[in-house]
Amino acid sequence: MEAISKRFFLYLSYNKALDRMAKRWGSKFGANKIIGGQTFSQAIPLITQLNQEGFQVTVDHLGEFVDSVDDAREHVRECIESLMAIAQHQLETEMSVKLTSLGLDISRDLVLEHMELILSKAKQYGITVTLDMEDSSRCPAILDIYKTLRQKYDNVGTVIQSYLYRSDEDVEALQQFSPYLRLVKGAYKESGKVAFPEKQKVDENLKHLIKKQLLNGHYTAVASHDEAIIDYTIGLVKEHNISNDRFEFQMLYGMRNQLQADLVKKGYTVRIYLPYGEDWYGYFMRRLAERPANIAFALKGIFSK
Questions:
Q1: Which of 19, 60, 132, 170 is an active site residue?
Q2: I want to staple 276 with a disulfide (CB 3.0 to 4.6 A). Which of 36, 141, 204, 241 is the partner?
Q3: What is the mean pLDDT of residues 119-135?
């Protein structure tokens, strides 16, 4: 059933007719519940509102698995224009990027060239950029590029997924870079050869990684809607007298709004992951295809307070 579900949502993600309908009737399909707009300009009022409500933000221009140099360069242009707009409007937001959108599957040198352009502009404006993690086959390349960039830029972070067996060793190897890490469970469907198949093991490993990163004294973003993980983090920082400016919670836009607000009221930093762009339909379908359990979770998150 899981395999059938995955194939079904992947099929939908490539359906051009549905994609055209989604772009035309996005608000009626619920796009405004999961993305900030089709352009960064459209997202600015929402970011401003979130900032006024006490939230930090990280924006992500939708698009991945680019196989054209021209498309990758267009994505870079969009990122740089968004960075300029962030500075112009004095928005409290960072930026997240997927390296496959910048040409990871084309050339390592091309990605490094593009990230240099983005990070140099981001550094000029004091903006942090996080390299999103993708499937396990691309994990080594992404971490290698992060290490290369981190030697020159202090405004770059990356993501570690707790469902991968390798993650503990990855966190250990990154310690020399004083890394800013976003720690997540992971949403891609992976083989049992590389990832824990049991949710309990994934949760236990995430707690382990959170503790390791925090006690090593490096800034930690705990990206989870799971209240058990959030409560664990709060208990950990209280036990070890870790100040609130050494970590933050991150959640997807449109998910667990009341929980997000409650954490802000308690004095914790909460950063909202806010995608934008025309590719919202494919983005949403792929999220469902990556892990069918996300279907119920996404619907629950959208409609839950």
A1: 132
A2: 36
A3: 97
- Kind and range of the H or E element at 75? helix 69-88
Give the pLDDT confidence of 23-57 residue by residue, as tens digits: 555 544 555 677 898 899 999 999 999 999 999 99
Residue 230 reports pLDDT greater than 90: yes
Task: Please say if 168 is a catalytic residue.
Answer: no
Q: In the 8-state DSSP scheme, what is residue 164?
A: B
Among the listed residues 296, 278, 303, 292, the one whose alpha carbon sits nearest the alpha carbon of residue 1: 292
- Give the 3-state secondary structure of 219-270: CEEEECCCHHHHHHHHHHHHHCCCCHHHEEEEEECCCCHHHHHHHHHCCCCE
User: In terms of Cα–Cα distance, which of 134, 256, 252 is closest to 186?
Assistant: 134
pTM to 2 decimals?
A: 0.88
**What are 153-194's pLDDT values in tens digits?**
999 999 999 999 999 999 999 999 999 999 999 877 788 999
pLDDT-derived band at 241, boundaries 50, 70, 90: very high
Residue type at 282 in one-letter notation: G
State the catalytic residue, choosing from 150, 182, 256, 287: 182
| CA 244 vs CA 41, 236, 273: distances in Å | 31, 12, 19
How do strand 129-131 and strand 156-161 relate by DSSP bridges?
parallel
Please, are residues 43 and 37 in contact by the beta-carbon 8 Å criterion? Answer: yes
**Number of H helices and number of E strands within the chain?**
12, 8
Instruction: Decide if 132 is catalytic.
Output: yes
- The CA R_g of the chain, rounded to the nearest whole Å, is 18
